[in-house]
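[STRUCTURE TOKENS]
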Amino acid sequence: MSITDVSKIEINRKDMRTKTGGRAKGTPNKLTADTKSWIVGVLDKNRKLFEKDLKRLEPHQRVAIFEKLLAYSIPKMQATTAQIDFGSLSDEQLSIIISELTKDLNDE
């Protein structure tokens, strides 16, 4: 096994075993794909009934259901962080960062 082959082996971080089989990373689960397909079919066939049922709900119930459905159509944003070593930046770089961070404050 060459060094390039070794780098391609996935290692389970919990127990440090190498992955030896199963689906390739990123390959969807067949059961999940089948279930999603079934749900889409049910929704398509019952769209008018579903819309009629939604109209019968109280506004707060309708909003709650709408919010739950959005989770399946719009990807959730993930939090991001940045670690910056300000000591390694030049005065010019620091000035650029400060002006970018404060430019909206100056407009108000």
Summary: The chain has five helices and no strands. The first helix runs from residue 3 to 8. The radius of gyration is 25 Å. Residues 1-8 have pLDDT under 50 and may be disordered.
